[in-house]
Design a protein that fits this description.
Elements: H1 3-22, H2 24-27, H3 31-53, H4 59-63, H5 68-77, H6 82-86, H7 100-128, H8 146-160, H9 163-186
Helix pairs in contact: 1-9, 3-5, 3-7, 7-8, 7-9
Protein name: Heme oxygenase
Organism: Microvirga guangxiensis
GO biological process, one term: heme oxidation
């Protein structure tokens, strides 16, 4: 079994738990609910990117995948000022990422959520009429390159795979799902 297959199997319960608890249908039914959801995502990604940036095994690879700027763009389009965005609550404490392998395990969750974001983007567009320039840049983050970006991430993850690293990577992914669940699902 490859590391990607193992991650998919071993994180499935955590993935299903967060998907059920988020109640996306309700949260993207109104602009206020959607804005509140983006605020929670901003708080998670801002804290995660700060923690992960120093551990990224490939800086350029990591930088192309940052989401905070897209969330700030969306929140601005939905009426928040730059000062309000900067003062938004941050997800803390974030799970410890003691190594590049742990960072990649955590990134598996973050990158995987981008795949789901493409589906959410269609619903946001249908329900609220928002596109990448009007408040849905985050969920459309990679646009038509989503499959390519996921494949590149999978390649990077498999390059890091080893008997020692795999347990660290899987454990970090599971912890990231837990932190993400607690942070995203506690808000309105």
């Amino acid at each position: 079994m490859t590391l990607l297959e193992r991650l998919k199997i071993e994180t499935r319960p955590a993935h299903d738990r967060i998907e059920l608890a988020m109640d996306l249908e309700r949260r993207i039914a109104s602009r206020d609910g959607y804005r509140s959801l983006l605020i929670r995502f901003y708080g998670f990604h801002s804290a995660w990117e700060q923690a992960a940036s120093n551990l990224a095994p490939d800086r350029d690879f990591f930088e192309r995948r940052r989401k905070t700027r897209l969330l700030a763009k969306d929140l601005s389009a939905l009426g928040l000022s730059d000062d309000e965005i900067i003062r938004l609550p941050q997800c803390a404490p974030l799970m410890p990422m003691p190594s590049p392998a742990a960072m990649l395990g955590s990134m598996y969750v973050v990158e995987g959520s981008t795949l789901g974001g493409a589906v959410i983007a269609r619903e946001v567009e249908r329900n609220l009429g928002l596109g990448p320039e009007t408040g849905c840049a985050y969920f459309k983050s990679y646009g038509r390159d989503i499959a390519v970006m996921w494949k590149q991430f999978g390649t990077k993850l498999l390059e890091a795979s080893s008997p020692e690293a795999d347990d660290v990577i899987v454990e970090a992914a599971q912890k990231t799902f837990d932190v993400m669940h607690d942070w995203l699902c506690e808000g309105p």
